[in-house]
Amino acid sequence: MRAIADGVFQLPLLPRDVVNAYLIGDVLVDTGIKPSSSRIAGMLEGRSVSAIALTHAHGDHAGSMKRLAARFGVPVWCGAADREATETGRPVLSTTLDRPGLSLVGNAAAGFDGTPVARTLVEGDPLAAGFVVLDTPGHSPGHVSFWRESDRTLVCGDVLFNLHLLTTVPGLRQPPDMLTPDPAENRKSQRRLAELEPSTVGFGHGPVLNDGAASKLREFAAKLTQA
């Protein structure tokens, strides 16, 4: 577990930051794939957890949600438009992922054990440790990010990736189209996050970005198509 800002920790769940969860104050943000539950529980041993907040309802972020909610005895929160997917375990994707040759991450995102949602998160809601909710749809209908203005720290889920999933080479990238039902809407969310000029950015996939984060996001957004 790595401190990335005051009261914020990255929980790397696979080598080379391929999948990450975060602890913001006492709120666990995302839960990785189903086998990640014991690793997350070990990293959080001795710490207080009050809730699980999902950036979005895909299996590589909600895979351990049900087990960890039961283990810690805490509620699950998610974006309003992802509530049904969170409760049923059936995410909204742009493909059924039933064709051969799709990535392991793609298959991991395809489904998970659903859990009742205690609170739906909407724009401006407080989270913990001074963070607020941002509506950042596109990669999923109810995708949310978490933002703290005071030190310009952003946890953005899968609005952007910061590595290539196959090579694991770091660098800002689009999330795969097969997992993104509305790529155009996601590009709007990317532009919005770039306009925040964050100093530190935590991603669902890839290493934390804090060296020139604002300029790198700005350059990435400037190259996006309008379509």
Short summary:
The protein is α/β, with parallel strands linked by helices and 227 residues long.
What this model shows, in words?
With 227 residues, the chain is an alpha/beta fold. It has a single domain (2-222), classed as Ribonuclease Z/Hydroxyacylglutathione hydrolase-like (Metallo-beta-lactamase, Chain A, 4-Layer Sandwich). The chain is built from 7 helices and 13 strands. Helix 6 packs antiparallel against helix 7 (213-222).
Question: Helices and strands in order, then pairings?
Answer:
Layout lengths: L1 E4 L2 E5 L7 E5 L2 E3 L7 H7 L7 E3 L5 H4 L2 H8 L3 E4 L3 H6 L15 H5 L10 E3 L10 E4 L8 E5 L4 E3 L5 E3 L6 E4 L9 H13 L4 E3 L10 H10 L5
Parallel strand pairs: 4-5, 5-6, 6-7, 10-13
Antiparallel strand pairs: 1-2, 2-3, 3-4, 8-9, 9-10, 11-12
| Proportion of residues in extended strands | 15-25%
Number of helices: 7
Write down the overall mean pLDDT: 93
CATH superfamily: Ribonuclease Z/Hydroxyacylglutathione hydrolase-like
How does the helix and strand content classify structurally?
A: alpha/beta
Task: Quote the CATH topology.
Answer: Metallo-beta-lactamase, Chain A
Query: Strand sequence of the main sheet, in spatial order?
Result: 1-2-3-4-5-6-7
Give a quick set of tags describing it.
single chain; 7 helices; globular; 4-stranded mixed β-sheet; 7-stranded mixed β-sheet; Metallo-beta-lactamase, Chain A; 227 residues; alpha/beta
